[in-house]
Design goal:
TIM Barrel; globular; 259 residues; alpha/beta; nine-stranded mixed β-sheet; single chain; 30% helix; 9 strands; 8 helices
């Protein structure tokens, strides 16, 4: 089975409910021989209510790009906040500097190298119809700054799979196969498997991630990889197999970012 060299979705203490620092994550990644990790701390109203809460995310240029030999991709896991597919703080004007009319969402996404968009919770999120959920995911996939739809199998919202996957393929975006989702029980595992099978059939690229909330789980994909091996998922559709492969697919969405 192929070996994954990039863990694109990880968390640090800054997420508020994770347990490790950036350096601790990088050390564990280095021990496993990973080439890169995405530092994708949470960004949304559930986790970041005030400017001081998300200030450090907007200052990632203060960090080295490589720590202990591991490339740290400046990222975010940004919340999808309504059925229209808007992203967190799309309606909040950036409060500092000259008045530019830019939103906090704009400022965040413009400084990222990798962007995961996920549903965690928003008011009325469980009340949407299948059609509404489908259009929500389509709108997010069509956002030019988004790279990955996060843990879509675990979000618990019904959607028309083929419609969403067709847009993911057309937009060259990725569906996440999230190892942490396999801890959520058999119904979720079955959904994740169905998504992976359909991605393979339709030629839709995926990323495999740990969604680690402590350094001890960085680069751990055993459950997800076991499922992918069982269904004979094509290696060429795994976008994060290497840093070079991933970067070639996402860099054009993040102008100014240099590998």
């Amino acid at each position: 089975m192929f070996k994954i060299k990039v863990d694109p979705h990880t968390h640090t203490l800054f997420s508020g409910h994770a347990f490790s620092t950036i350096e601790e994550n990088a050390l564990h990644a280095a021990e496993l021989g990973l080439e890169a990790i995405g530092m994708t701390d949470h960004f949304g109203p559930m986790f970041s209510k005030n400017m001081p809460d998300f200030g450090p995310s907007l200052n990632m240029q203060a960090l080295p790009k490589v720590i202990h030999g591991v490339r740290i991709l400046a990222g975010t896991e940004i919340d999808i906040v309504d059925h229209e597919g808007h992203l967190a703080f799309h309606d909040k004007e950036f409060p500092f500097g000259p008045a530019t009319g830019r939103t906090v969402c704009d400022m965040m996404l413009d400084g990222r190298e990798i962007v995961v968009a996920s549903v965690h919770y928003f008011e009325g999120c469980r009340e949407g119809t299948t059609a509404q959920n489908t259009q929500m995911y389509i709108n997010v996939l069509q956002n030019p700054k988004v790279d990955i739809i996060g843990h879509i199998g675990r979000a618990g919202l019904p959607f028309e799979m083929d419609e969403v996957l067709a847009v993911a393929k057309a937009e060259d975006k990725f569906i996440e196969i999230n190892d942490h989702s396999f801890d959520a029980g058999e119904p979720i595992v079955s959904i994740c498997r169905d998504i992976a099978i359909r991605c393979a059939e339709m030629g839709v690229s995926i990323v495999v991630s740990s969604d680690a909330h402590s350094s001890f789980f960085i680069g751990h994909f055993d459950q997800a990889m076991g499922m992918l091996e069982e269904i004979h998922f094509p290696e060429e559709l795994v976008a994060n197999l290497t840093l070079e492969r991933l970067w070639s697919r996402i860099s054009h969405r993040h102008p100014g970012a240099i590998l």
